[in-house]
Design a protein that fits this description.
This protein is of the alpha+beta class and 239 residues long. It has 3 domains: 53 residues, Roll (Structural Genomics Hypothetical 15.5 Kd Protein In mrcA-pckA Intergenic Region, Chain A); 88 residues, Alpha-Beta Plaits, CATH 3.30.70; 80 residues, Pseudouridine synthase. The strands form 4 sheets. Strands 7, 8, 9, 10, 13, 14, 15, 16 and 17 form a 9-stranded mixed β-sheet that branches. The protein has a 4-stranded antiparallel β-sheet with strand order 3-2-5-6, with no helix packed on it. A two-stranded antiparallel sheet has the order 1-4. Helix 1 crosses helix 2.
Length: 239
């Protein structure tokens, strides 16, 4: 393990002093995570990118789609010893999740060791549709549904709801299952949307990410993304 600025300099990208400046400015990412502390140590196997461009190009890129089970952390490691999404993928590569799903949320999540790919998909301008199935502890009325469809203001920002469809109503248990499609990916955003109409999300699963879905993957299963799928995701970013 070596200090990050030393590794950057060893790749011939810039001087060690300049590398330190880039780290302080938050322009350096390691395995898709921004690093701003000069004492950070990395290895030659870590994926380092500066301003979204990978500097250790010799790394073989891997891309996965996983159907995340409940009670699995969307992280590389967990200080509490819980299972992470990375633990479920059989690879020696230093992969990491693109974005995150909550601990109790299941469904589609992407993982890679390609910093450029990850940065592209996580950029705020990347308007990819994300579709969820949500079970809530309230039967919404027409006013509630119209309020959600007409784009709520959540924590001072508008949330654009592309589609909202009622899938099932259980009057006996006073529960409802809905399919909801949005673009953005703020933390807990689906839960916050339903909170605005007085409902609590009791189960949540992401079933779609753009053109991708997990219909053919059981909980905990994964597969490699195809070259065609990777190109289509990059194409979405250019629209």
């Amino acid at each position: 393990m070596e200090r990050l600025q030393k590794i950057i300099a060893s790749y011939g990208y810039t001087s060690r002093r300049k590398a330190e400046d880039l780290i302080k400015k938050g322009k350096v990412m390691v395995n898709g995570q921004m690093v701003s502390e000069l004492g950070t140590k990395v290895s030659e196997h870590d994926v380092i990118s500066i301003d979204g461009v990978i500097i250790n190009k010799d790394v073989k890129h891997e891309y996965y789609i996983l159907n995340k089970p409940r009670s699995v952390i969307s992280s590389i490691t967990d200080d509490k010893g819980r299972i992470t999404v990375v633990d479920l993928i059989n690879t020696e590569a230093r992969i990491y999740p693109i974005g995150r799903l909550d601990y109790d949320t299941t469904g589609l999540i992407l993982l890679t060791n390609d910093g450029d790919f990850a940065n592209t998909l996580m950029h705020p301008s990347m308007e990819v549709e994300k579709t969820y199935i949500a079970k809530i502890d309230k039967i919404l009325n027409k006013e509630d549904i119209d309020k959600i469809r007409k784009n709520l203001i959540v924590e001072g920002r508008k949330v654009v709801v592309n589609r909202l469809k009622v899938k099932k109503i259980d009057k006996e248990k006073n529960t409802m299952i809905l399919e909801i499609t949005i673009i953005e990916g703020r933390n807990h955003i689906i839960k916050k949307i339903f909170n605005e109409v007085g409902a609590k999300v009791t189960k949540l699963s992401r079933i779609g990410y753009g053109f991708l879905n997990v219909k053919d993957l059981k909980s905990g299963e994964y597969r490699n993304l195809t070259i065609k799928e990777i190109k289509k995701l990059y194409a979405l970013a250019k629209k």
